[in-house]
Amino acid sequence: MSGDAHAAGLLRELQAIHPNIEIFGAGGPEMHALSSGKVNNWVEDAAVMGVIEVLKRYSWFKARFHEMLNEAKSLKPDVLLLVDYPGFNLRFAKALREALPNTRQVYYISPQVWAWNKKRIPKMVELLDEMLCLFPFEKPIFENAGLKTTHVGHPLVDELALEKTSAPRQENLVGLFPGSREREIAKLFPMMIASAKLLRAWRSDLVFVVPAATPKLATTMRAMIEDAAATDWIELRTGGSHHLMQTAACGVIASGTATLEAATFGLPYCLVYKMAWLTYFLGKLLVKIKYIGLVNILAGKKVVEEFIQADASPTEVSRWIQDILSNDQKRAALVAQLLQVSSQLGEPGTHRRAAVRVSEWLNFKP
Length: 366
Known about the structure:
Elements: H1 2-17, E1 25-27, H2 29-34, E2 39-41, H3 43-46, H4 51-56, H5 58-75, E3 79-83, H6 86-99, E4 104-108, H7 113-116, H8 120-127, E5 130-133, H9 138-143, E6 149-151, H10 156-161, E7 170-177, H11 182-202, E8 207-212, H12 215-227, E9 234-238, H13 241-247, E10 248-254, H14 257-264, E11 269-273, H15 277-286, H16 294-299, E12 306-308, H17 314-326, H18 328-342, H19 350-362
Parallel strand pairs: 1-2, 3-4, 4-5, 5-6, 7-8, 7-10, 8-9, 10-11, 11-12
Helix pairs in contact: 1-19, 5-6, 11-12, 11-17, 14-18
């Protein structure tokens, strides 16, 4: 969902620069709305991660791929803007480069090839006209390989500034953030509920709030809460994750953009993640970094505790929350580190800087 928000922010700025611009493609609800429906909203259906998970939906992805390619061939766009989602987007970039060699290709939110697959970089140099990256350490990686690269900063700086509140933190409130994908919810939310149950046995005054990214996910999560007989002490909200990050005493968060959001708001949290075991095994063979959390990657050390696979258990997670709630000094030190790392995300104006770069390619004459 964050990719949809980031892309929509760029496109709004692009519309301000070029009021008559036409936008087509595929994305999420925000992009769909600002394009008057010309961007198809299938982000929730496409939100799967992992080798096994993608293979199960191969025919669906193949159909969407050819629909998009045929639409692009018909429209002959001046610029193809690719946002995140590298497994699909880099294949689409190759197909479109072959079909429409004069269409400029700009990639926003650079794929984390520095973690997973550096062998992709030469292919990206061949296919893309420019990379717009969010983190400062990414720029030399692509630039040294020969790809024009601009560090535009992180759009969270702009997006979160609009949602800051002065509401105080509630010392007995724990935020549960199981992610915005159905598979994440299925794997992580039952563990979070079980962790909360253990914590209630430790401190009966603790209350738990979980935000659902969509009404559809809220329905799924509500059923899980009811099945666990936890309706009296786990409150489900649709949306409101940023407010919760600013009012909770601590949190448990699925790996992803939400971990950066929480760091920006100074929420002490631990990171959790589970995936299919085969996917995890293959990932361990490919991954070249020590941590999966973006805060830890930016810091170059462990700032946030990471509970992955079997370690993401009710016992381990509840033990961490007990420790952080019982130790004011440790909690304050973690908050300070989180704010220091999030300060590396850059200055406000990311969407505008990115839109200006795309605009340059719209005006490009070969």
